[in-house]
């Protein structure tokens, strides 16, 4: 603002002073004075210029800076990070617990953390575990102790909960019928006065600290067999402890930091959170020599079964040759606990917004997971697809490493699977033996990228089609006559009992007795014989050396197969055309193997073991291996065995209900 | 009296302005030095100190990453530029001690390194060690673009850039990811609200203004200024690549919105056509890349990318654009050799050239050649039966990389203008009947070919 001031008064003299300075320099005192004045004026002018320049420069610089932060380098998505947990200095929690015939709820500080009033559901004892320092819910379980064995699960769970946690119990409907003495004693040891006397249709609520004080208990006795106890509402206060007291003091390492994060959030994982000697979360299995699947991505498809996922990832990370960096866990839904498990093991996880319902939801989740896998690992030619309810064999990657080149080179292959549908304890023997089968077993398998990208992805069932993805993949339009390679002894074990198509009974009948390889470093036998043409030679060789069993005996009887070891036997069953599986299904049923649909066949031939002998079943005359066509040494006296299906009901009803049962 | 007065006034004013001026100068200097940091103070004479600081910081950083087995390579354009001048000498003497600090002491604010994501394990220990060594570090994370195209997947955010600062120098570590289409991608550098905007002068970074796409480089281990470091085998071609590396992500969100409005055609025919178009595009890209001819997605194929991130199933052909200055006579034989016979050739090198190749099962590959004028770019069309010529006008554009059907290809960076020029403001609405002579909004009549030229400019096979 000042710069205009000096100018007006001196300006008129400016020109003349210059002139005078030249002409009367030193001759005149006035001239000297004028010179000084001129100098001053000039000086002022410079000031003005410098000032103007400064203003311009600062402006420009400021503008550029503004531009820099405003345009180029600002995140368009304004991620306003609000602190997630408001600081809560409160030391006391108000807990409300309600128990009644048709409804239970638990509210902590006014927030409902459990509410169940659904009909025909949620019967039994509901258990909630709270963190004693933060009051956060760490686990929520319901044990239907009206039914058998659920009390054992509850005891197991309660034993896994760390000391000091706050436990909340409430009964919905009925929770005492199968609540055995052991369980009652555990509840008593937690401080419950009522538990030992809990009886039919009583209502009960209890809040206590594991290994510590009791905060409250309420009980309402059922007056008669046909009626329930009155609803009970327990209101109590719980005093919080300090965070330090609630945590274990593990050495400060990266692994333990992950462990700490996990253990302060969730409960029910047992020794991983034990303060003394916790179980490891890093396994460092031996590397595989010449591992051909080290760079193959592994997609783990998961839902909301975090305990399953925990067990699955432990076995996966313990398998020799595993490369944790290639593992991605895809969680169907925004569930926190599965993600916590993934982070515990330091793996990467991706959550997927559920699309559609039931089977279609699973199917859409599969598609998204597979697409994402190939996007994340664009170099990969294959992907290993696993599910959260599988145990992985210690030599899983060794098995794949030895066989994966077949999938790359043999166009007639559809997949490599770690699962043998017919590989039960009594029908599988040889860990080094592989088969070719026309069915797609899933349950731990390798998918070729080109198959997925060129064929499957573009026509994957859309969300409105309630199809099972695996049934769809088994359809002839997709499979196009290609086959899968499977091991005789499975390299995965299906332990899931709860699931979309799964229940305890079904698991017991079809999965529990499945054989699972536990031998490390199995050297696979004659992998080259699995190629399309070589396999035919191999089968003919086998049939050539096979002894024909006595077809007059009952094939279901144990005595059908002689008490030998290491021999090859063949039997013939009637199979009128390619799709005639009448006799096979009956045979499978009496052999107690998979009989719900046809699995494990290769051109009308099944291979399994009985009494440690290789046992071949050939469908005559549909199979090309029928004696007439392959000229094996079949004595003319043998008639293929025919087995009548029983009266329709049982078999026919079971099939549609559980056809795709294992993919859950 | 009056004169004295005037002198006093003058003297007073001079004094004030002198003080003022001094103040201004001080402020000016302070301001500049704050903004420019090291480079300004260097002028103030501490040159050698500053230089060796840079070298020391780089040496410390290289020590840090090698102690964690993280393979990084140098992509700093300034240093690579210097290295490139002496490349022969550096290559021939990989271990020789160097007499002077020639490269890593060059004045600059940053040294830029690249890291391939899949070669390291996201080891948190690195940062702890870095802190112990005195580095301050900043991590810039963002969404994973490889999952962006997918419905409803929320992955973890991935690290895109790291900045390690020590004293007055900073190391910019750019994380490269492999993308479908066999190329490397680095993300843009975007600061979140809570981040320290003054951590380093972000505007001066060489990488991060835009995302970029690069070929996988061949690396060379060299020793420069007594530091062992990996550099791209051919620095000059890397620098050249860098100057055209800008990458555009497909507009996945808009594409999803489009499919909400116009559900995708999932018929067998559509699936088949997409598959053929994709393989044709792959073949064309391979052929043209082998010839070193730069091309981009044009017309319907470009619209498909921009509007729906996919091939438009009813478009029936694949369209590419090539600048006429990039034309090579080998193009036709190369395509024929690749199994794509020439279907027709319209126009000539000087005017309206257009090639059309026959792909598998009626899927056609059209290549339009583009002619640059002062204020616009155009390509030509020819009607075979009448010899009529058409001209399609486009505003000027530059080329960006993108990923399309698992391929790294060019598209015009100014895609919207390009698409709008071609399809008008209603380009968002799918049109099944399209007449190339009248439907485009940028078509102009361009006369008729002289009859005596017809044999040359209208060739149909």
From TrEMBL, chain A:
Main location per UniProt? Golgi
- Organism superkingdom: Eukaryota
Q: Which residues form the ILEI/PANDER domain?
A: 123-212
Question: Where found in the cell?
Answer: Golgi apparatus membrane
Cofactor(s), names only, from the UniProt record = Mn(2+)
**UniProt GO MF annotations:** beta-1,3-galactosyl-O-glycosyl-glycoprotein beta-1,3-N-acetylglucosaminyltransferase activity; carbohydrate binding; manganese ion binding
What Gene3D superfamilies does the record point to? Spore Coat Polysaccharide Biosynthesis Protein SpsA, Chain A (3.90.550.10)
Q: In which pathway does it act?
A: Protein modification; protein glycosylation
Name a biological process GO annotation: protein O-linked glycosylation via N-acetyl-galactosamine
Catalytic reaction list: 3-O-(alpha-D-mannosyl)-L-threonyl-[protein] + UDP-N-acetyl-alpha-D-glucosamine = 3-O-(N-acetyl-beta-D-glucosaminyl-(1->2)-alpha-D-mannosyl)-L-threonyl-[protein] + UDP + H(+)
Q: How is the cofactor bound?
A: The manganese ion interacts primarily with the substrate UDP-N-acetylglucosamine.
Q: An example Gene Ontology cellular component term from the record?
A: Golgi membrane
Q: Which UniProt keywords apply?
A: Disulfide bond, Glycosyltransferase, Golgi apparatus, Lectin, Manganese, Membrane, Metal-binding, Phosphoprotein, Signal-anchor, Transferase, Transmembrane, Transmembrane helix
EC id? 2.4.1.-
Concerning InterPro entries, the annotation shows: Glyco_trans_13, ILEI/PANDER_dom, Nucleotide-diphossugar_trans, O-linked_mannose_GnT, POMGNT1_PANDER-like
* UniProt note: domains: The stem domain mediates specific interaction with beta-linked N-acetylglucosamine moieties of O-glycosylated proteins. It also interacts with its product, N-acetyl-beta-D-glucosaminyl-(1->2)-O-alpha-D-mannosylprotein.
Function in brief: Participates in O-mannosyl glycosylation by catalyzing the addition of N-acetylglucosamine to O-linked mannose on glycoproteins. Catalyzes the synthesis of the GlcNAc(beta1-2)Man(alpha1-)O-Ser/Thr moiety on alpha-dystroglycan and other O-mannosylated proteins, providing the necessary basis for the addition of further carbohydrate moieties. Is specific for alpha linked terminal mannose.
The record's note on quaternary structure and interaction partners says: Interacts with DAG1 (via O-linked mannose moiety). Interacts (via transmembrane domain) with FKTN; the interaction is direct and is required for normal location in Golgi membranes.
Q: What family does the Swiss-Prot or TrEMBL record give for this protein? A: Belongs to the glycosyltransferase 13 family.
The record ties this protein, via PANTHER family, to: PROTEIN O-LINKED-MANNOSE BETA-1,2-N-ACETYLGLUCOSAMINYLTRANSFERASE 1
Kindly provide the name given to this protein in its UniProt entry.
Protein O-linked-mannose beta-1,2-N-acetylglucosaminyltransferase
Protein source organism: Lonchura striata
Gene (UniProt): POMGNT1
From TrEMBL, chain B:
**GO CC entries:** Golgi membrane
Q: Name one Pfam family in it.
A: FKTN_N
The compartments listed are: Membrane
- Entry keywords, A to Z: Membrane, Transmembrane, Transmembrane helix
List, for all copies, the residue spans of the domain called LicD/FKTN/FKRP nucleotidyltransferase: 292-328
Q: Is Transport given among the entry's keywords?
A: no
Ribitol-5-phosphate transferase FKTN N-terminal domain residues are: 1-278
Transmembrane as a keyword of this entry, yes or no, is yes
Which GO terms fall under biological process for this protein? Answer: glycoprotein metabolic process
Annotated membrane topology is: Single-pass membrane protein
Name the protein family: Belongs to the LicD transferase family.
Q: What is this protein called?
A: Ribitol-5-phosphate transferase
State the organism of origin.
Lonchura striata
From the broadest rank down, the organism's phylogenetic lineage runs: Eukaryota, Metazoa, Chordata, Craniata, Vertebrata
Identify the gene encoding this protein. Answer: FKTN
